[in-house]
Write a structure and sequence with these properties.
Blueprint: H1 8-14, E1 41-44, E2 52-54, H2 79-100, H3 107-121, E3 136-138, H4 150-159, H5 163-169, E4 174-176, H6 185-203, E5 208-212, H7 215-229, H8 234-237, E6 238-244, H9 252-260, H10 266-277, H11 283-292, H12 298-317, H13 321-324, H14 332-339, H15 346-371, E7 375-382, H16 404-408, E8 412-413, E9 445-446, E10 456-460, H17 471-482, E11 498-500, H18 507-514, H19 524-542, H20 548-567, H21 578-598, H22 603-607
Helix pairs in contact: 2-3, 3-12, 5-17, 6-7, 7-15, 10-11, 11-21, 18-19, 19-20
C-alpha cells in the first residue's frame, strides 16, 4: 500500500532521512536464579517506534496553541502556526518568484527551506554535543512488561506483536528499550547497557536475548563497540541476537539524500516520483503536482529542493548521531566531509567517527562473538522497491527503505526483480558446506556471501513498514527466542531460508472470529462457499510457506463470503469515482505530454525559450 498524501512530506523529508533520555537509576535487588529455559528478551525498536514526549519545565507534556498535546515524532506546531510562519517568511519571496520568474539571490529557496526546517524539525533540534535542546524525552521502561502499566504494555506490544512470546516466556521476560530516534547514540547505548543489567538482575538469568529492529540494528552495532570500550565481553551478557530487518549498515536512501539530495532530474520530478508515493485514488493529485511545479522555472524548483534538503541536514539533523548512524559506511566519509568538516563540529565528529568505527567493524565483531558462543539470527525483507525519491531506488535490492546488503550483512543481489547473471555461481564466502544452496528460486539473492548465511531468513516482496503484519516473521522470531534447538535455516522445513512476504492483518482475526460459525442457516450454495473459503483461509493462516498471491487470494475469497453473510448481498468492487477517473486521465495526459516535449521546463522557460 502506498502512502497517503498527508504522509508524503514525512516520507520525503523525514522518514527517508532515516527511510535526551532519562538516566536509568532504579536499583533492583538480585533475584534468585530463574529455573525456566527462556532468557529474557530485550526489543530494540526501530525509528519512531518509541513513545517520545515534549515536556515543559515541570515535566508535564507541552500543549500547543490549541491546547492539545504536541504529536510525536516531530512535535510540529498547529496548522495555523505553520501557515503564519509560511506567510511571514515565504510569502513575499515566493510571490516575487512567481511574478518575476526569477529567484533573486535565492531568497525564495532560502525562505521555503527555513519554513520547512522550523516546521518539521525545529522542536527536535540538537546542540553541538548531540543533545536535544528542548525537553524532548522518550518514556523509559526500566523494567519488564510485567511491571508496566497496561497502557505502556499494550503500546510496546503494538510496536512488535510478540504476544505469543509472552504466552511462552511470560511478561516478566520481555523488555522494550525505548529511546529518542533522532537523539544521541552514545547516551542511547549506555542506557541499553544498563537495561541489560537490569533484566539480568530482575529475572535472575545470566544472559539476555536482543531483538534489534530496523534502526535498532545500528544501535546494536554501537552496543558491541561499547562493550569493547568498557573492556567487557558482550558474550558474558548476550545469549542470542535476533535481528529483524536491521539497518546494520544504514539505509541507502539516507546516504543518497545526504550526498545528493532528493531526485530532481526531469523524468523523476515531473514523471514518476509523486505517482509512486500516492495511492491509486490520489493519482490525480500526483499528476496535478507535476503540472503545478511548472509554474516555477525548472532551475528554481531544483534549487528549492536542494536548499531545503541542505537546511534540514545542516541546521537540524547534522548533530543527531542516531540519524548519522543510518548513513551507510560507504557514504560516511564523503558525507562527513560535506557536513562535519568545520572546527565547531568537532564534538559531533568525534561521536560519528566512533560509530563509523563500530559500523565498519560490526561484521568482524559478530564473527568473533559467534566463536565465543553468541548466536546471531537475521530476518530480511527483500525485493520490494525502495521509495522513488533518491538515485539508488532502481539499482539496489531493498525492502522499501533499507537496502538488502545492509539488512543481510552482505548477501549478494542486483536490484528488484533482477536476477543474478546466468553464469553466476554461488560464492560460498561464509558457507562451509558446498552442498548447501543459498540462492533463492528466482536467483535474486546469494545468501552465502552474508556473514550469517546459515541463520538468515529472507521474505520476498515484504514491505519494511509492514514487517510486523507478517505473522510468519513474528512466529519465526518467537521460535528463535524461545527454542534453543532451533539453530539455523535447516532446523525446521516450516521456516526455510527463502520465504514470502504477506500482510496477515485481518486474515487471522477473521478466521478466529468465524471458525465456529454455523452456516446451516445459509443457502446450500453459500454454505458450501463458506466452508470451502474458511478451509482455504485456515490453510493460509496455518501455513508458513504460502506464496503471497495464494495467501492474498484466500484472504479475498473469505472476505467476499463474509461480506455476503453480513450484508445479504454479493460483494462488488467499488467503482472509482467517475469524475476522479476523468481528471486523473486528463492530468496524466498533460503531465506526460509536457514531460515528453518540454522535459522539466517551467511554463516561463517554454515561453521565454530558456
Amino acid at each position: 500500500m502506498k502512502k497517503p498524501f498527508s504522509k508524503v512530506l514525512a516520507i520525503m523529508i523525514s522518514v527517508a532521512m532515516l527511510l535526551t533520555a532519562v538516566p536509568i537509576s532504579f536499583v533492583f535487588a538480585a533475584e534468585e536464579g530463574c529455573d525456566c529455559d527462556y532468557c529474557p528478551s530485550i526489543v530494540i525498536p526501530g525509528i519512531f517506534q518509541s513513545k517520545v514526549c515534549y515536556l515543559d519545565e515541570n515535566g508535564n507534556e507541552m500543549l500547543n496553541a490549541e491546547g492539545e498535546k504536541y504529536s510525536a515524532p516531530f512535535f510540529m506546531e498547529t496548522t495555523d502556526e505553520i501557515v503564519k510562519l509560511a506567510l511571514e517568511e515565504a510569502l513575499l519571496p515566493l510571490g516575487s518568484l512567481l511574478l518575476t520568474q526569477t529567484d533573486i539571490e535565492h531568497r525564495c529557496a532560502d525562505a521555503v527551506a527555513s519554513v520547512l526546517g522550523k516546521a518539521l524539525l525545529g522542536n527536535i533540534a540538537l546542540d553541538e554535543y548531540g543533545h536535544v535542546i528542548k525537553n524532548i524525552k522518550a518514556d523509559k521502561y526500566t523494567t519488564s512488561l510485567a511491571n508496566l502499566s497496561e497502557y505502556d504494555r499494550n503500546y510496546a506490544l503494538d510496536q512488535i506483536p510478540l504476544d505469543n512470546y509472552v504466552d511462552i516466556a511470560g511478561l516478566d521476560h520481555l523488555y522494550f528499550f525505548s529511546y529518542h530516534s533522532t537523539g544521541n547514540m552514545i547516551d542511547t547505548v549506555n542506557e541499553l547497557y544498563e537495561l541489560i543489567q537490569i533484566a539480568k538482575r530482575e529475572t535472575g538469568h545470566d544472559k539476555v536475548n536482543l531483538v534489534p529492529i530496523s534502526q535498532g540494528g545500528s544501535v546494536e552495532n554501537a552496543l558491541m563497540q561499547l562493550y569493547i570500550d568498557k573492556g567487557l565481553d558482550f558474550s558474558d551478557d548476550v545469549n542470542r541476537v535476533c535481528y529483524v530487518v536491521p539497518a546494520a549498515d544504514g539505509a541507502a536512501v539516507l546516504g543518497d539524500i545526504y550526498r545528493y539530495g532528493l531526485l530532481d532530474d526531469d523524468d523523476a520530478l515531473y514523471g514518476y516520483m509523486f505517482p509512486s508515493l500516492l495511492d491509486e485514488d490520489q493519482l490525480y493529485l500526483s499528476y496535478l503536482i507535476n503540472l503545478i511545479l511548472r509554474i516555477l522555472p525548472n532551475a528554481d524548483v531544483n534549487n528549492i529542493i536542494d536548499t531545503a534538503v541542505n537546511v534540514l541536514i545542516e541546521d537540524y539533523l547534522e548533530y543527531s548521531t542516531l540519524i548519522w548512524a543510518l548513513v551507510p559506511s560507504g557514504d560516511y566519509p564523503a558525507c562527513r566531509e560535506m557536513y562535519l568538516s568545520d572546527p565547531e563540529d568537532v564534538h559531533i565528529r568525534e561521536q560519528t567517527d566512533w560509530y563509523y568505527n563500530a559500523q565498519v567493524n560490526s561484521r568482524k565483531y559478530i564473527l568473533e562473538l559467534k566463536e565465543k558462543g553468541v548466536e546471531f539470527f537475521d530476518i530480511v525483507d527483500y525485493n520490494y522497491t525502495m521509495y522513488q525519491i533518491v538515485d539508488s531506488w532502481d539499482n539496489v535490492n531493498a525492502d522499501g527503505i533499507i537496502h538488502t546488503d545492509s539488512e543481510s550483512f552482505g548477501a549478494t543481489s542486483v536490484a528488484v526483480d533482477v536476477s543474478l547473471p546466468e553464469d553466476y555461481v554461488q560464492a560460498n564466502t561464509y558457507c562451509t558446506d558446498e552442498s548447501h544452496n543459498h540462492i533463492d528460486e528466482d536467483r535474486l539473492i546469494d545468501a552465502s556471501t552474508g556473514i550469517l548465511c546459515e541463520t538468515t531468513f529472507y521474505f520476498k516482496g515484504q514491505d519494511h513498514e509492514k514487517t510486523a503484519r507478517n505473522d510468519v516473521i513474528m512466529r519465526l522470531a518467537i521460535r528463535i527466542l524461545t527454542d534453543e534447538s532451533f539453530e539455523n535455516v535447516y532446523s525446521d522445513p516450516a521456516y526455510p531460508q527463502f520465504n514470502y512476504g504477506r500482510d496477515s492483518r485481518g486474515a487471522i482475526s477473521n478466521y478466529n472470529s468465524w471458525k465456529n460459525y454455523d452456516p446451516s442457516g445459509l443457502s446450500e450454495e453459500d454454505a458450501k462457499e463458506f466452508n470451502e473459503a474458511l478451509a482455504e483461509l485456515r490453510n493460509a493462516v496455518n501455513s508458513t510457506v504460502m506464496p503471497t498471491e495464494e495467501f492474498n487470494a484466500a484472504k479475498d475469497r473469505f472476505e467476499r463470503i463474509r461480506y455476503k453473510i453480513i450484508n445479504g448481498e454479493e460483494y462488488v468492487e467499488e467503482e472509482p469515482d467517475a469524475f476522479i477517473t476523468f481528471i486523473t486521465k486528463v492530468f496524466k495526459f498533460w503531465s506526460e505530454v509536457m514531460l515528453r516535449f518540454f522535459g522539466g521546463k517551467g511554463y516561463s522557460d517554454i515561453l521565454l525559450f530558456r
